Amino acid sequence: MVGVGFAHSLGAIDLRVVGTIVVSWLVTLPIGAVLAAFFFSTLKGIFS
User: Fold this and answer.
1) Around Cβ 32, how many Cβ atoms within 10 Å?
2) What is the Cα–Cα distance from 21 to 17, expressed in whole angstroms?
3) How large is the greatest C-alpha to C-alpha distance in the chain, in angstroms?
């Protein structure tokens, strides 16, 4: 996105794509944290 902004004008950036990227990060990070905690506690219970 930044490369497109530098190469062209800021109007060349598709805001729907930017929104999709932001939403994917906002969804991915908490889900990754929950899964990491789940697997950590499960594996800790198995191996301790």
Assistant:
1) 10
2) 6
3) 57
Tens-digit pLDDT profile for residues 1-48: 666 666 667 677 788 988 999 999 999 999 999 999 999 999 999 998
Identity at 29, one-letter amino acid code: L
pTM across the whole model? 0.62
d(CA 15, CA 1): 10
Got the DSSP string for 1-48?
A: -HHHHHHS-GGGS-HHHHHHHHHHHHHHHHHHHHHHHHHHHHHHHHH-
Token pair of 42 as six digits: 């499960």
